[in-house]
Structures are given as C-alpha cells and as structure tokens.
Amino acid sequence: MTPSNQANSLPPEKLQTTAQHCSLRACTPADADRIIALQNRIFNTTRTIVDWRWNNEQNPYYGYLGVICELDGELIGSYCAIGVKLNLLGLPILACQPTNSIIADEHRGHGIFTMMTNKMSTLYQDFKVQVMFGFPNHVALPINLGRLGMYNLGIIKNYTYKLRLEKHLPLPARASYSLYANLRLTLKESLSKLWAWGTTFSIVDKIPDDYDGLWNNLRKQEVVALWKDLEYLRWRYEQNLQFKSSYFEFRVNGKLVGLAVTAMHDGAGTICELLCKDKSVGLAKFMIYKICRYYMDNRVDAVKFYGHDRGFFDTAFSDFVRIPNQDLFFVGKALEGEEHIQRLLHQSFNWSISSGDFFF
Asked: What is the pLDDT of residues 160-170, one digit of tens each?
C-alpha cells in the first residue's frame, strides 16, 4: 500500500484528532533506533546507528538536540538538529543546523510539524542557541522561508574541474583529453609555485596538532562562518566513519599555512575545506592544483567544491566551471541578539560556507 493510500485508509476521526492526541518530548539515546528506522522508511535511506552517534553523542556542543512525536506509543515524527558554533567577527556563538524533519506519511497535514518546531524553539532557548541555519532542498524551501521565518542567505555554487572525460565516450577522445588535461595542470602547477614560493606540501592522516596557530589567523578573516577550531574539525572529519577524508597540509619553514580536507563524493574528489593563511589567493591556487594533481594521479574524473562567500572562492577557483547548485538552498535566522548583530547574520554577503558544512 502506498503512503497516500495509507493516509486515506485512516478513519476520519483519527485524521482529525492526530495532533490533539500525540505527545512531544525531547529525544534521548533510547529513541535512536526508532528515529533511524522512521527516516529510512520515509526517505528510503540507509542511515545507521554509527551515523546517529556521530551526529549526537559525539557532538562537542549539544549532544541530543531534537524532539519526537508519538501517537499511542508509536513514533510518528521527529525533528533533530546538529549543534555547531559560528564564527561571528572572530568570536564564537552557539548555533544549530537542523538536519532531519520526519513525519510519517499517513500523519502529514495535521499540524505535527508546527508542534515539533514550537517544541524545538523551547529547546533552543534552553540550550541558548543564537542562530539556526540549514540547507533545505526545493521541497522544504517554502516551509523554511514561510513557517520557520528563515532568510534566504545565498546560492551555493558548484565548482568543477574536469580531469577526465566520461567513460562512455570514444577512447581516442578520452585519451586526447587526458593528455591535454595533464599538460594544462602541469603548467598551472608550475605557475602556482611562483605564488607560494617556499611552500611544502604533504598528505597526512589527521588534522595537524599545530592547527590552532593557523586557526587564530583564519578566524579573523570572516564575518560569519562556522567556528572551525581543532575540536570541530576532528569531530566533523576524523570521527565521522561514514566518509574517509584526506588531509593536505602546506607549510613554510615548518609552520602550517594551509590545510585542505577532501573526500570522495558522487564519484568526484570533493574539497570540503580550503583553509589558507590570510585568505591568500596565490596560496589557495597552489593548494587547489596540488589536490587536482593528487586526484588525477588516482584516476578520478573530476575535482569539485561547493561554496558561497563574498568572492574569495570565485577567485581561488577561477579555473573551475561554476554553476548554481540546484539541489540545496542556504537559509538561516538569528534567534536572539542585538539588532545590529541580527542584521549581520541576515545579509548573504557576510557568510562563508564550504562543502564540508553540509555534506556530512
């Protein structure tokens, strides 16, 4: 039976009284299996308890931040968020990123979503959350901009650098393009060395222990971005067992001046983080070409990056083809704070967002 048929098969009196009879409460570790099962059933996903624990139990900021809705002991809805910090003019503020809003198909349209968001608003106050932001798809966008009162904060761009042609194309065409791409990348690598003279490059197995020195420089370069200190990066990447990340470090006289984190996503080497001292475009291009060379040598078809900012990404990725991302939108809202702070948070050009902020 399809979800719509299930909904129509419910007695009219149950359809009318679902919202009045259901109960809401904050979620706990004991709810994990039921929430995962509901999500996998509704969205046809394969989420696991490992992913849940990473999002919640291992989260360095909030732990469990979410609500569940039950009807006669049956879980019929949940709304969860990930705890994060934002970097606001070099200082941290508490924020959250809603990740999953789930309502069983047969119980939609009866006010349950509104009830869950109202309950979440109480939790936000309890946890002293100052900002909420997220990346809804086109289906959820009207709800975020309408019922939740979120602001449209910008368009995420998809930057792509093609290393190889698709395998279905004729072999001579693919061989010719691979030769061209290799020569082009070799030239760009050579030129980029002039912009980052004396910079050494290596691939390491974890976030460098001396990253805090670079972070103290990075956090002063942004108006609004995620707070990406050592604790955050290790949680986001090293503790996330769903993806295997690669770490590229760049040093001058032994001092860390750049760090990139990448992962394979949809068949492409995806740059999750591009962190370089002073937001130097020359250093950023040197880092990008080294990453491209790594993935070309590993016979990957393309390198991608997804991001939004005031213009640094457009300049650093100027050799990449860029198009607006049609799958996700960037929205947010200040929950509290002085008026001038709220104005900063609600202006698109103040934000800097990169792939790793929403892929995992």
From this structure: 999 999 888 89
